[in-house]
Design goal:
Blueprint lengths: L1 H22 L27 H16 L2 E5 L4 H15 L3 E5 L2 H14 L6 E4 L1 H9 L3 E2 L32 E8 L24 E4 L6 H11 L5 H8 L3 E3 L2 H10 L4 E6 H9 L4 E4 L5 E4 L2 E5 L5 H11 L2 H11 L22 E3 L2 H12 L2 H5 L3
Parallel strand pairs: 1-2, 1-3, 6-7, 6-8, 10-12
Antiparallel strand pairs: 3-11, 4-11, 5-8, 5-9, 5-10
Length: 378
């Protein structure tokens, strides 16, 4: 009997458990997350390269394969040359070798290299007269197709002012003026006109670049004559009173040392390091004015690194290249968007007369014919 009672108790317990489970609320199924449609994000379009950018990219690739560029340069000396070498290598990782010297000598060196079939120099940097002589010998090629020269409305001085064919590219707006040593020429004694230089008190105290080896004297005096502000009789008379040094750089050195009272033509780039160091010298305004030379760069025909040469010249005309160059040299830029780096003692209010392509041709011919040499024979 007891056994049957235990069975009933077990059955009752099972029934109670099942009843409790049946009466409990049913758990809600876990809802599935709602997946919202994603917004369509348009792919960012890569801007199409301009023709100028494409040309530059191709030029950079070709230049890096050539590995370097060699410059024969008149003014890429000292801090100027170092600044250009660093700036160009920082931008493109291409080194530049610089060989410096006077323009006339560099021109003859390039002609000789081409004649013997061993061209080393890739481009020349000097005065327009020397480059025109080089062009006349067939030793240069045009660089008018480099990308930066396709820019518009950025030029203060037209890079093609000396040569519309693009063999000569004017990379700097460089003034040539008369300078004095301020210890030897007192305030109030400064000449106001080149005709004042005929005063006997200046005899033996004036210096100019030697017309046998430097084009600077030709560019200076012949330009003043071409603009009809100074006649040839006066130029001849002044020349007979002058002392000669090798080039325009040597004029600035002689004035800074106090060897002469008056010197011309002295360029912005030649005077800058001396004025910067506090030498007693300054440009003086003359009634007839001074001259402005853009200077010139020219690619050498058959140069060993043609693409690296074009790339360097392109860089020289960019805002970056012009900023580095003019700051190191103390110059005004050919670009409107680059600040004038000249010092106060280099700036004068006198008119600066430009040399155009036709005048460059004439100056080159007169230099070849040694016109001033013969005019100033004593």
């Amino acid at each position: 009997m007891k056994r049957h009672r235990n069975i009933f108790v077990l059955i009752a317990a099972i029934v109670i458990v099942l009843s409790s489970a049946a009466c409990s609320p049913t758990s809600a199924p876990t809802p599935k997350p709602t997946i919202l449609p994603q917004a369509t994000v348009p792919a960012t379009a890569t801007p199409a390269l301009s023709a100028q950018d494409k040309a530059l990219a191709q030029l950079v690739e070709a230049a890096r394969k050539e590995g370097k560029v060699t410059a024969y340069a008149f003014s890429f000396t000292g801090d100027i040359g170092l600044a250009l070498q660093k700036g160009f290598k920082d931008r493109y990782n291409i080194p530049m070798d610089i060989v410096t010297g006077r323009g006339a000598e560099m021109s003859e060196r390039i002609k000789t290299e081409r004649r013997i079939g061993n061209v080393v120099g890739d481009f020349m940097e000097t005065s327009p007269t020397n480059v025109m002589n080089l062009k006349a010998s067939g030793a240069t090629v045009s660089t008018s197709d480099i990308p930066v020269l396709q820019e518009k409305d950025v030029w203060k001085v037209d890079p093609f002012v000396n040569d519309k064919e693009g063999h000569l590219l004017g990379h700097r707006g460089m003034g040539f003026n008369a300078y004095i040593n301020t210890n030897l020429v007192k305030p109030g004694e400064e000449p106001k006109s080149y005709k004042d230089l005929l005063n006997p008190k200046w005899d033996g105290k004036m210096v100019i670049s030697d017309p046998n080896v430097s084009s600077g004297s030709y560019e200076f005096f012949i330009t003043l004559n071409e603009y009809k502000v100074l006649d040839m009789d006066t130029i001849k008379a002044i020349g007979l009173k002058l002392k000669f040094v090798a080039g325009t750089r040597q004029i600035a050195e002689a004035l800074a040392r106090g060897e002469y009272a008056i010197g011309f033509p002295v360029s912005d780039v030649d005077s800058y390091p001396f004025v910067k160091e506090g030498a007693p010298m300054k440009a003086i305004p003359m009634q007839e004015g001074g001259i402005v030379i853009t200077s010139a760069m020219a690619r050498v025909k058959d140069g060993p690194h043609p693409n690296a040469t074009k790339l360097f010249i392109n860089w020289m005309f960019t805002k970056e290249g012009q900023s580095i160059y003019t700051k190191a040299a103390g110059l005004a830029s050919v670009r409107k968007d680059v600040e004038d780096a000249r010092l106060p003692n280099q700036r004068v209010e006198s008119n600066l007369l430009p040399i155009d392509s036709a005048l460059s041709d004439k100056l080159a011919q007169l230099f070849r014919d040694k016109y001033l040499v013969n005019l100033w024979k004593k």
